[in-house]
Amino acid sequence: MLRYVFRRLLTAIPTLFVIVTMAFFLIRLAPGGPFNQERGLSPEIKANLEAQFGLNDPLWLQYVHYLGNLLRGNFGPSYNMPDFTVGELFREGLPISVQLGASALILALLLGSVLGTVAALNQNKLADYSVIALATAGSTIPTFVIAPVIQLLFGLTWKLLPIGGWGDGALINKIGPVLTLALPQIAIVARLMRGSMIESLRSHHIRTARALGLSDWSVVVKHALRGAILPIVSFTGPAAAALLTGSIIVETIFSIPGIGRHFVVAALNRDYTLVMGTVVVIALFTIIFNLIVDVMYAVIDPRVRYD
Amino acid sequence: MTDIAATAPVIVGRSLWGDAWARLKANRAAMFSLYYLAFIAAISVFGPWFVPHQYTTIYADYVRMPPSFSAYPKADMIEGALDEAIKRMRVDIKEWRQEGNRVFVTVRSSKPVDDRNIRYLDRSDTFDDTKIESKSPDGLEMVMSASIKQQYFLFGTDNTGRDLLSRTLMAGRISLAIGLLAGVVAVVIGVLYGATAGFAGGRVDEVMMRIVDVLYSLPFIFFVIMLVVFFGRNFVLMFLAVGAVLWLDMARIVRGQALSIRRQEYVQAAEAMGVGQRGILIRHVIPNLLGPVVIYMTLLVPQVIILESFLSFLGLGVQEPMTSWGVLISVGAQNIGSANWLLLFPAFFLVSTLFALNFVGDGLRDALDPRDR
C-alpha cells in the first residue's frame, strides 16, 4: 500500500508539471498584460514595473524562473494587488474557503447518504419520491439562483441570517454560504446513494444476512452500507477539490473573502502569478483528494488491491 | 402458396425511433415538459413582437415599478409625473384636475407662456395628445389638457425603467439560442473526435484520449475564462467557445459506444457476410450511436444555458443592452432588497426551463435505452 501511495505521488509530479506548463503559456498567449489598464500608467512607469517583475525577459526564461520559484514554494508577487504576495493572499483566503467547503461537504455526505438510504429502503413510496424530487431540484437549480433566494428568504423576509459578509467567521454568517454550497452536493449524494443502496440490498450477502436473522438496522448499516458507499467515495474526491478551493458564485454573492473570487478578477486583469497560483492550488487539491479516495477504496473494499 | 402469402396479415415492425416515440408519449412528465419547452420557445421567439414595449425602451417615469395587472400610471402617480413635466416648462401649476382619462392643468408664469411648452407633457411617459384649451388675454396663464397614457407592466420594470416582461422574453431568446447552438457545436466536435478515436483504435485512440484527459485536468473555469479572454466579449464567438469546452464528455461517450458497438455480434455477423466498412458504419454504428448522442444533447443544452448564465452573471457573457437570463438574474440578485421581482421572474423562467429540459432528457433516456425493454 505504501509503495502504491509513493508511486502515485511520483506520477502526480509530471501531471502537475503539464498543468502548470499549459496554464503558464495559455495565460501568456492572451492579449494584454498586467499593467495595461485603462487608467493608463505613463509609459516610463509601466516599463519600470515590467522590468522589475522581469516581464521583459524572454518567455522561456520567465517560465524557468517561475518554475524555480514554485519549487521553493514561492508563488511570486501579485501584480494587481501590489501589497500582497500570492502566498499571502492564499494564507488569508484559503482557510476561509476550506472551512466553508469542508462544512458543506460533510453536510452533503451525511444528509445525502441518509436521504439516499431512506429512499432506497422505501423504494417507490412517498419518502422515495420526495427524495427524488429534492434531488432533481437540487441538481437543476443553479447556485446563482439558490444563493440570492436564500438571501431573500432567510435574510430579508424572515431576518434570520445576515445577508452576507464573513463577520470574522461567526457561525451565523456561514449558514447561508454553506447551505448554498451543500444543496447541489446533497442532491448528487442522495441520488448516488439511492442507486447504489438499491443494488447493494439486492446482492447475495444481504440475502444471506437477512436469512441469518440479523436485524434490519444491522443489515443496512453493517453490511449493505459498506458496498453502497463506494460510489460516494469516488464522488468525494473531485467534489472535495472543487468545494475546498472556493466558489466564485458563493463568495461573490455572500461577500466572503475566500480564494474563489480571486480567479476571475485575476484572469481578467492578467494577474499572471495569481492565476497560476490558483491553478496550482486547484490541481494540487484534485491530485491529493483523488489519491486519498483511491486509498480509501482499498480500505473499504477488500476486493481492491494495489500491489 | 402465392395466395397464402398475399392474404397473410402483414406485420409491420416498428422502427427503433417509432418505438422510442411511442414510449416517450407514454411518459407524462416528459411530454408535459416537451409542451412546456415548446411554449417557452414560442413566447421567447415571437413574444417580443407582441409585447407593446421594446426591451431597450427606457421609461423614465416608471423606474422599478412592481409587477401589476392594472395599468400604469396609478392614481397617485399622476400628480408626480405632472409636477415633473411642468417643472421642465419653468412655469408654476395653479391648479389641476382629472376628468375621466384626461387631465386639465392650469399653469401661470411671470412671463407669457409659450405655446410650444406643451411638448414637455407629450414627452413624459405618462401623458399624450396634449392640447391648449384656453389662454388668458395677457398670456400669463394657460389651460392645457392631456390624455393619460395607459401602460401595462405585467412583470414590472427594472432599475432604468425598462419593461421586465419584454426583457425576460428577449433573454429567453438569447439563452435558448446559445444553449442550442453551443450544444450543437459540442455535439459535432465530440462526435467527430470520439468516433475517430473509437474507429481508429490503437495508437491514435491512445493519443487522442490522452489529449482529452489533459484538457479535463485543467480547472474547467480556467478554461472558460481563458476562452472569454481570447475571444473578447463577442457574443457569437463566446458561445462557440462554450460549445468547444463541453465536447469532452461527448467525445468520451461516443468513443466508448463506438468501441463497444464494433465488438457486438451483429457487427461481426455483418462483417462475416461481407458487408463493407462503410455499410457497417451507416447501417449499424451510426443508428446505435444516435441514441446516446440525442440523450446527451438534451442534457447538454441545460448545462450550456447554466454556463452561459454563469458567465453573464460574472459579467463576462452577454453585454447590455442585450440580455440573457443570467444577466437578468445577476441584476436581480443585486436588487433583492428593493425589487425582488427582478430576481423572481427571470429565475422562474430559467429554472422551469432547466427542469423541463431535464425531464425530457430523462424521458428520452428511458425511451431510447434498449436495456430497459
Automatic annotation (TrEMBL), chain A:
<feature type="transmembrane region" description="Helical">
    <location>
        <begin position="9"/>
        <end position="30"/>
    </location>
</feature>
<keyword id="KW-1003">Cell membrane</keyword>
<keyword id="KW-0472">Membrane</keyword>
<feature type="transmembrane region" description="Helical">
    <location>
        <begin position="228"/>
        <end position="254"/>
    </location>
</feature>
<feature type="transmembrane region" description="Helical">
    <location>
        <begin position="96"/>
        <end position="119"/>
    </location>
</feature>
<dbReference type="InterPro" id="IPR035906">
    <property type="entry name" value="MetI-like_sf"/>
</dbReference>
<feature type="transmembrane region" description="Helical">
    <location>
        <begin position="131"/>
        <end position="154"/>
    </location>
</feature>
<dbReference type="InterPro" id="IPR000515">
    <property type="entry name" value="MetI-like"/>
</dbReference>
<protein>
    <submittedName>
        <fullName>Oligopeptide transporter subunit membrane component of ABC superfamily</fullName>
    </submittedName>
</protein>
<keyword id="KW-0812">Transmembrane</keyword>
<feature type="transmembrane region" description="Helical">
    <location>
        <begin position="274"/>
        <end position="300"/>
    </location>
</feature>
<comment type="similarity">
    <text>Belongs to the binding-protein-dependent transport system permease family.</text>
</comment>
<keyword id="KW-1133">Transmembrane helix</keyword>
<keyword id="KW-0813">Transport</keyword>
<dbReference type="GO" id="GO:0055085">
    <property type="term" value="P:transmembrane transport"/>
</dbReference>
<dbReference type="Pfam" id="PF19300">
    <property type="entry name" value="BPD_transp_1_N"/>
</dbReference>
<dbReference type="Pfam" id="PF00528">
    <property type="entry name" value="BPD_transp_1"/>
</dbReference>
<feature type="domain" description="ABC transmembrane type-1">
    <location>
        <begin position="94"/>
        <end position="293"/>
    </location>
</feature>
<dbReference type="GO" id="GO:0005886">
    <property type="term" value="C:plasma membrane"/>
</dbReference>
<feature type="transmembrane region" description="Helical">
    <location>
        <begin position="174"/>
        <end position="193"/>
    </location>
</feature>
<dbReference type="InterPro" id="IPR045621">
    <property type="entry name" value="BPD_transp_1_N"/>
</dbReference>
UniProtKB/TrEMBL annotation, chain B:
<keyword id="KW-0813">Transport</keyword>
<keyword id="KW-1003">Cell membrane</keyword>
<feature type="domain" description="ABC transmembrane type-1">
    <location>
        <begin position="172"/>
        <end position="361"/>
    </location>
</feature>
<dbReference type="GO" id="GO:0055085">
    <property type="term" value="P:transmembrane transport"/>
</dbReference>
<keyword id="KW-0571">Peptide transport</keyword>
<keyword id="KW-0472">Membrane</keyword>
<feature type="transmembrane region" description="Helical">
    <location>
        <begin position="338"/>
        <end position="361"/>
    </location>
</feature>
<dbReference type="InterPro" id="IPR050366">
    <property type="entry name" value="BP-dependent_transpt_permease"/>
</dbReference>
<dbReference type="Pfam" id="PF12911">
    <property type="entry name" value="OppC_N"/>
</dbReference>
<feature type="transmembrane region" description="Helical">
    <location>
        <begin position="293"/>
        <end position="318"/>
    </location>
</feature>
<keyword id="KW-0653">Protein transport</keyword>
<keyword id="KW-0812">Transmembrane</keyword>
<dbReference type="Pfam" id="PF00528">
    <property type="entry name" value="BPD_transp_1"/>
</dbReference>
<feature type="transmembrane region" description="Helical">
    <location>
        <begin position="207"/>
        <end position="229"/>
    </location>
</feature>
<dbReference type="InterPro" id="IPR000515">
    <property type="entry name" value="MetI-like"/>
</dbReference>
<keyword id="KW-0997">Cell inner membrane</keyword>
<dbReference type="InterPro" id="IPR025966">
    <property type="entry name" value="OppC_N"/>
</dbReference>
<keyword id="KW-1133">Transmembrane helix</keyword>
<dbReference type="GO" id="GO:0015031">
    <property type="term" value="P:protein transport"/>
</dbReference>
<dbReference type="InterPro" id="IPR035906">
    <property type="entry name" value="MetI-like_sf"/>
</dbReference>
<dbReference type="GO" id="GO:0005886">
    <property type="term" value="C:plasma membrane"/>
</dbReference>
<protein>
    <recommendedName>
        <fullName>Oligopeptide transport system permease protein OppC</fullName>
    </recommendedName>
</protein>
